[in-house]
Task: inverse folding
């Protein structure tokens, strides 16, 4: 098997040793995404400034490599961005997964572009974003 | 049994020439030759089946309902001939005991509704821990509808039915029906049908076998195993989708009320009340899956032309080979170790998620299944949330199994 | 609408070129060219449908259940695309309101079981005197099971629904559902769906239309006619057997309990209890009719490429022509004279038994149906024990109708 | 349409003006056959000598031309024959209808040979014989 373009080193390493895993003490917002089909689950905790900027993100992910790596890259990307920016990024990411195009616009997440050929796995990559968007919407906190 | 030197030498290779009958095996996936190891979910179709269906539509088709014209009569003949074939396939005493359904699922639902309506509150149905949802949810629904009890026979860690436990579940004489698989779609376990039937009968219960996986791999004789009901599904038997079979003992089918109402299942219809057709028609409402029935007939002819001796020998040798090869893959754990098993192997590999295994195999052209295989309670019993599953058809080769094992090794090396 | 001079001049001839798409029309029966006038029982299949099915089996097939591999994903895509096509065909607001069934019969039984379980003793279901057994027996069975009332709306001698009588049947507000045909398979009557729906809704009832015959001939828009449920069957729509459709309003489908239990209709399964998938999957247990779904999609594409304007114009002109020609046959009596009708014509001829008519026509290559057409109560209402029935498809020509009329004349002359 | 080999003059004339229709006064045995599928019905009344010879037969038939003509020809053939002979003839007739062969062995009934091409109509021709055999078995009389 040649080096796989989807399961790149980067993805597998992030899945095996995620940098942003765990629960966030003093999170101001939390969110959760579950995929009943395979039992995968992502919980996200984050801190948001008054101005709407994410200062810290942690995720607790039970799932496949795609899901964990996606969650961890998301957490890394989220810090320092505004809710607005992250909403846009989430949409761009979803669009890239659907079409396989636009990898250059989503930073590190571009590694998941080949997933567009595996439609039933796309949800694994977007599940963390479901959790993040829920956290940003603050629905769990009100 | 094929006694030619080649077959004796290697039952796996003995069926290799049949691959030419399956056009799809020439397809490529992600630029790699397709290695289709998902036959337990649904088998590929030989050209004989494809041709029978398209020939029907091109040259000899009409509705079978009481048509007096040539096309209708010939189409009826073709469909009814398949009833004889099915009876022959499973050793049913009478063609009139063969009911066509959409699939195994509908067949079991039919029994759960019609035979189920004869089960009284306080009575029980026994299933096992390793049932497919198709042989589980209908009984749950019956329980919730009719106030009967649902009992679950446990399995051993090896993945075999615990017969003593089953005996205990039967001992109070309240069990009306034992409904268990004849071969597990997850563990490959072949259940001791005759012993189960004897135990059920001794306790005054009837017995239904879910033969969805079993009929594909071995010759089944419903009389020999003492079954009261037997179900299977056409698409796993190299036939089309949309067609399945319920076999039931005549006296049971006759005692059961109909399931679906409509054309063709009636004798006379008045607004005040209707009377039903004889079995099997009582259970076949509406226009049947005509083209698919004919396709199923072609599948049965195909299989019988090969013979179950050769098919079973191929499968046994291939499964042995696969178990040996998979045991060599570091970190791979085969789930279950039943003594009598068919060509379905579930496994996990270290902590590589089964979905990642499936996708990585797919990227190499290898189709397997990953997930709960419509057997969530079994997953819980096994303590896993999902498994990867490779399953074999008569077209599966030793090289395909070797490719699977080699690719799994590479996948594992990615993750360690 | 095709505005080419030819089509304007003769909508019957406008579709003549399509006969080349139907290979079976080249067959001979008893040495005579096949004249197939039994399309209302089941239509013949265009090569586009045959090819779509065989292409699936040759090149792109696997089970659609949650497969993570390429073949499974592509097959799932192909099937789910047909849900969109069906929604488009009948103007359904959402693809998720489209439930695949085996045929119309199963679709109606599904409603009778699942919606039926929400109907309380003391409430009623209204059908009409001209229902096919498929839209009659399931309601009888529900009546006998659940203690509801079954009311029958009468028809006029012309074969039309008596709307005032229907109004009276609805007036006590006890009716939960009106289930009537959108087009009679015996009389050809097209029922005033919108008015029926309005009457039903005004009385607090829901309405189901049996569109088995109607969807073949005219564009149907479930929103325009105000339907709550709509059913049809693939094999009459030039598609394969083994596939049918139930459309229901989402809020109704969501409120209804599931019908069959098994794989794919669940969300989670535990022995203690299970939870159901979202609609439409809640109603689709087990392996669906994958190949047939794809075939139905091809049939819908085919029909839409022709257009319902051309199809309806062909049918209207052909039916007019047939009624004129049959009126010239001595002793022939057309049954029913509805103002709005489709291409299905029932008749008797003096005291020549309809079975003799059918066999004599068959001996001349002409396929019609004779009998009670799965509508025994309607036969009683009409005072006949059986009728002969000619029915037309988009491939039917003026010459075929003329051959029918001429042969009927000769048959009659045999008997006088 | 050429002269039809199944619906020959003979068949149609017998159907329109059967020679042996009606009920038999003083019948010693009666039998009935019905086809629920199409509602056809044949009633047969006959007189049997002690020795087992049929002396008179009448039939009341509601059905298609095939059924009426078959009943009427049967009645004509039955008179003077023994129950044994008629049982054999019934079997031969059935066999001919199935195969289309052996028309020469069943007398006048040979006209129905082409019916083997119309399987769903065979029952129309055999229904009278069902009634006759029932009468001969005397099941209704005991
Ligand atoms: C009006 C009508 N309803 C229902 C049906 C039943 O269709 P199916 O047998 O495909 O379920 C038919 C045709 O047989 C029909 O003509
Ligand atoms: C053991 C077993 N039972 C039942 C089924 C259900 O078959 P179907 O989906 O064709 O009804 C399957 C396959 O899905 C199976 O493997």
Result:
């Amino acid at each position: 098997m040649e080096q796989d373009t989807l399961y790149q080193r980067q993805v597998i390493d992030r899945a095996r040793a995620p940098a942003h895993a765990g629960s966030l003490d003093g999170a101001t917002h939390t969110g959760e995404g579950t995929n009943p089909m395979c039992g995968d689950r992502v919980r996200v905790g984050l801190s948001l400034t008054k101005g709407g900027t994410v200062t810290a993100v942690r995720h607790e992910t039970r799932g496949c490599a795609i899901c964990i790596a996606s969650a961890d890259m998301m957490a890394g990307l989220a810090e320092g961005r505004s809710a607005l920016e992250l909403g846009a990024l989430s949409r761009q990411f979803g669009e890239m997964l659907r079409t396989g195009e636009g990898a250059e616009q989503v930073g590190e997440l571009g590694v998941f572009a080949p997933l567009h050929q595996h439609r039933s796995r796309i949800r694994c990559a977007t599940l963390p974003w479901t959790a993040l968007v829920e956290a940003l919407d603050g629905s769990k906190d009100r | 049994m094929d006694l030619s030197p080649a077959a004796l030498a290697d039952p796996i290779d003995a069926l290799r020439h049949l691959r030419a009958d399956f056009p799809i095996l020439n397809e490529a996936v992600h630029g790699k030759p397709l290695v289709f190891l998902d036959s337990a979910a649904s088998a590929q179709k030989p050209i004989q089946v494809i041709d029978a269906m398209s020939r029907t539509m091109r040259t000899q088709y009409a509705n079978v309902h009481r048509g007096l014209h040539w096309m209708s009569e010939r189409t009826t003949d073709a469909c009814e001939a398949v009833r004889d074939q099915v009876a022959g396939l499973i050793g049913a005493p009478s063609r009139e005991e063969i009911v066509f359904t959409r699939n195994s699922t509908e067949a079991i639902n039919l029994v759960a509704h019609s035979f189920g309506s004869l089960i009284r509150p306080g009575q029980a149905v026994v299933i096992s821990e390793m049932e497919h949802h198709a042989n589980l949810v209908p009984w749950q629904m019956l329980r919730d509808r009719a106030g009967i009890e649902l009992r679950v026979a446990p399995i051993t860690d090896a993945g075999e039915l615990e017969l003593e436990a089953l005996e205990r579940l039967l001992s109070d004489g309240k069990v009306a029906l034992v409904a268990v698989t004849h071969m597990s779609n997850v563990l490959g376990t072949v259940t001791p049908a005759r012993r189960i039937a004897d135990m059920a009968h001794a306790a005054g219960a009837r017995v239904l076998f879910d033969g969805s996986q079993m009929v594909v791999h071995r010759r089944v004789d419903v009389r020999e195993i003492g079954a009261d009901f037997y179900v299977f599904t056409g698409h796993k038997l190299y036939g089309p989708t949309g067609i399945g079979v319920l076999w039931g003992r005549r006296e049971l089918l006759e005692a059961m009320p109909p399931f679906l109402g409509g054309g063709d299942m009636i004798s006379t219809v008045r607004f005040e009340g209707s009377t039903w057709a004889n079995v099997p028609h009582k259970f076949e409402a509406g226009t049947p899956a005509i083209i698919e029935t004919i396709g199923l007939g072609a599948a049965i002819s195909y299989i019988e032309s090969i013979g179950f001796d050769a098919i079973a020998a191929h499968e046994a040798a291939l499964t042995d080979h696969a178990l040996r090869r998979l045991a060599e893959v570091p970190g791979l754990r085969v789930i279950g170790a039943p003594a009598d098993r068919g060509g379905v192997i579930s496994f996990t590999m270290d902590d590589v998620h089964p979905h990642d295994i499936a996708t990585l195999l797919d990227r190499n052209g290898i189709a397997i299944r990953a997930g709960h295989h419509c057997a969530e309670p079994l997953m819980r019993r096994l303590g896993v949330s999902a498994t990867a599953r490779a399953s074999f058809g008569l077209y599966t080769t030793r090289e395909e199994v070797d490719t699977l094992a080699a690719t799994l090794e590479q996948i594992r090396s990615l993750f360690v």
Observations:
- The two ends of chain C are 46 Å apart (CA to CA).
- Chain C touches chain B through 94 residues (CB under 8 Å).
- Residues 70-90 of chain C form the longest helix (21 residues).
